[in-house]
């Protein structure tokens, strides 16, 4: 049996009781540590779980081209033993785990998954309502000659219908220099985690280049650090203000939300508590936000319906 | 201190270790049981947690108009004791809990929240990728003279840009008849939970009425039951097929996803495993899905960027 166990967002105590029972019983326990990271070290997990943990790299979890059977180390063991793969966040947050489940299914290996908090839902702690979010986008580190901007079109789509956009920020873990890679040196660069400041600057850079007014320096956003952790931190402000928010936010992981105009006054009031400058927040909100609907789809709801909606949306 | 503790989606073992420690130490433990439900009874929670639990109704958690201080029973205790409010899913899944946190903040009561899986992220278990979802909508029970259709506009917005839509289905818990309410009889109707079949029928009814072709009987969707539970179940098919899927799905809670065309072949293959009729699934997919972009925003990504995107999107 292959168990995919979500670890949640922050530390060793974010595992569920169900997940912990599986970790204690499994014959082998792997930790997938290249798509995201917890905020604590492997040794803390090991002593808390009372188990040694094998750190799984891409070759262990993903398609192994040396093995024609679509299998890999993980699946070979799971065919005959109870193997647990620990995944930061929720097991289905990452494409790569869905792919693993699918391959296990093809090989006839039973799979059981244990859900947990994901940044996709945990971001609700910033005070913005989850049902007001559009698609999630990712922001990668720009280099001198590579500044991918596909996020811009997706942000536009969300903003055209007034929705918030969650931006997931790049991490570089176990990266090799091209030189080390070519020489086969297993020497890795120090990990890098994109900050909210970097993200905000890259966004403004692309807006300046494209000039389509999808957002601007005055657009409201929320920077988030260590969501779900005991010292999680939010900073709300304009994109321009967030360019300089890294000191306030502190250590990784960071993520960011760009606000959509179809926002509710509860969201305004909640996030206002995190505002760099409350006056700016109030002024810009009054000017640009709290518009209940997009021009393309006139609001026809009556109050009763909105109230009923709110009740069902609460059923999460 | 007010603790908001997410319980996750299914049973008593879905609480996190961090959450369980809080429950064991708090002086009072409330369970919010009107916006959603776990799949197990209160008594099972009580014996597992080793605590008696007070079931919190709307008056306990929400604004109490008899109390001019914006307080209520929960906040009055939390001002001087450690009070835990247990919330099905994630504490920030429901608007009402964000409102509670905001009022606690105004009253100077410290708040700590413990995240957990929410249906918003847990739905990833159906094989559709979370970053391909647009806004979440809610579907309420239609009555003879009340058939709210605001969901239709929101589904259109999602589908116009090729995104999936998660539909949260109505629950009616502790509802009174108008007669009992007027007489002040505290007699409650049996709880009702909307099924995927009912949702699919209501959707088709509204499409027939509006005739705008936002979706149709051939649109692909996935019905989900007891997501995150040991016996979770998914059924994939056309809206027409899902009208008759309730027997296959079994007991509550149900939810549903209407697919967007901007879907990936991994999503096709994963969900195909749940298909009512695999041939229909393949045919309709080939005809209408797997289109990588919306007409309004031509795809300009190169492969390298898509690959990089996939990696970051994996960082959940």
What report would you give on this structure?
2 copies of one chain form a homodimer. By secondary structure, the first copy, chain A, is of the alpha/beta class. The first copy, chain A, folds into 2 domains: 116 residues, Tetrapyrrole methylase, N-terminal domain (Cobalt-precorrin-4 Transmethylase, domain 1, 3-Layer(aba) Sandwich), CATH 3.40.1010.10; 176 residues, Methyltransferase, Cobalt-precorrin-4 Transmethylase, Domain 2 (2-Layer Sandwich). Chain A is built from 14 helices and 12 strands. The first copy, chain A, has a 5-stranded parallel sheet, with helices on both faces. In chain A, strands 6-7-12-10-11 form a 5-stranded mixed sheet, sandwiched between helices. The C terminus of chain A is likely disordered.
